[in-house]
Amino acid sequence: xxxxxxxxxxxxxxxxxxxxxxxxxxxxxxxxxxxxxxxxxxxxxxxxxxxxxxxxxxxxxxxxxxxxxxxxxxxxxxxxxxxxxxxxxxxxxxxxxxxxxxxxxxxxxxxxxxxxxxxxxxxxxxxxxxxxxxxxxxxxxxxxxxxxxxxxxxxxxxxxxxxxxxxxxxxxxxxxxxxxxxxxxxxxxxxxxxxxxxxxxxxxxxxxxxxxxxxxxxxxxxxxxxxxxxxxxxxxxxxxxxxxxxxxxxxxxxxxxxxxxxxxxxxxxxxxxxxxxxxxxxxxxxxxxxxxxxxxxxxxxxxxxxxxxxxxxxxxxxxxxxxxxxxxxxxxxxxxxxxxxxxxxxxxxxxxxxxxxxxxxxxxxxxxxxxxxxxxxxxxxxxxxxxxxxxxxxxxxxxxxxxxxxxxxxxxxxxxxxxxxxxxxxxxxxxxxxxxxxxxxxxxxxxxxxxxxxxxxxxxxxxxxxxxxxxxxxxxxxx
Length: 479
Ligand code: FAD
Ligand code: MLT
Ligand code: ZN
Description:
By secondary structure, this protein is an alpha+beta fold. It has helices at 9-20, 29-32, 56-69, 123-131, 149-155, 162-165, 200-204, 238-251, 264-273, 302-316, 328-339, 341-347, 363-377, 407-411, 414-427, 443-449, 452-465; strands at 25-26, 50-51, 73-76, 95-98, 105-109, 114-118, 135-136, 172-178, 184-187, 213-220, 222-223, 227-235, 256-263, 287-295, 321-324, 351-352, 355-357, 382-386, 393-399. The chain has 17 helices and 19 strands. The radius of gyration is 23 Å and the shape is globular. The two termini are 32 Å apart. Bound molecules: flavin-adenine dinucleotide, D-malate and zinc ion.
């Protein structure tokens, strides 16, 4: 920590440069560009330079200097999030702090089913570290090759295995966090039980960098699955999918690990745009479920249980037909189809995304109501409502009308479409952001939809932990 407070912004920035050295500062415009635009290209910012600390101590030194000089800090992980949370303002006075050099796996403890990873570890590398000791770290997202565990925790990411293992919050045992003034909370506990006062860990998970910088995390591991069955199932629609989920959970002794809903249009998009993806079933169907069931023991009966349950579902009209992955490469192909839906949707032109959650059983009614509501506003927009229905989480996305019509006219409807969708969500009293967070995109929405008492409590927490407001200002909390 610096003994003497910086005298000005310029002085503080110079001292940060001196602290981090050339390897820890990125200046060249061609190198900073990727840190200054969000993944969807919706926001563009500027920064004096990109600060890249390599240790927790360096993060603490940077924050102490920034706090003293009141310089805003925008933490950034893999920069794959959807709400502009990691992009600085265009004024050029906010310092981007990239965590990518904090990328060590500090400890892997197979016996304790835990590991400690630094914030900048790419999710895929955390999964690999767990696998290296025959354990599973189950968080799984389409962006896992570039998002970082610090970003995953800061957005409380969900992904494709949450139906079984929970969201990022459920997978963390402890955190190391640098506070706004540079002090470090050493909370890297690997304990399963610790009732010693307020649970600070949970404050930082999902805070999108507004309360502290996560520098390392102690994470929960699980036994590696020994038996995995992956099926691609055609279904008549959402109600059938939800009934099928209950049936499969019961029949397999709650072994459903993944349950992802895909309308036909999502499958068509991937076949059209993603090289190597083909229709897993010969003829088109209204909708599909990518379902995976797994157990941590060798279980020769699991396939039979799944087939019997699917047979009963077909007899009952909850499923039409199904195909199973018979090899690792077939399994990977089915996952690739699902995981590349966002990319395929990008190839279809502009899209407007809504990331909503309602109780699982309410999904069919929500889908009916919200589809009718958006059809009133934008009759020719193409609805691509897919996602993690096992968690009640739909990506209720709209693609611009086919044939590339008037893109500007479509995008001009963004607000009206949002109102229509979120009014339906409100009716079910559920979430306007299930897993993608708030960032800068949904701040005003949060103001309208969040309980005002909860919002006031959030502001008090922010004031207590970051009294000078240097941590990711302009994100999450409405003005
Ligand atoms: P960033 O985008 O860099 O940052 C996200 C937020 O966290 C920002 O507010 C940033 O300031 C803050 N932050 C980052 N690191 C830290 C830190 N160390 N300390 C404090 N604050 C920090 N999301 C899902 O939930 N489920 C999905 O299934 C899913 N699928 C996706 C598929 C694709 C193809 C893509 C592109 C994205 C997907 N996402 C999904 C969104 C995104 O990948 C997640 O939100 C991810 O968790 C973001 O991690 P990141 O490292 O990229 O964070
Ligand atoms: C996904 O589940 O594919 C993403 O979270 C949603 C998206 O990219 O729109
Ligand atoms: Zn998702």
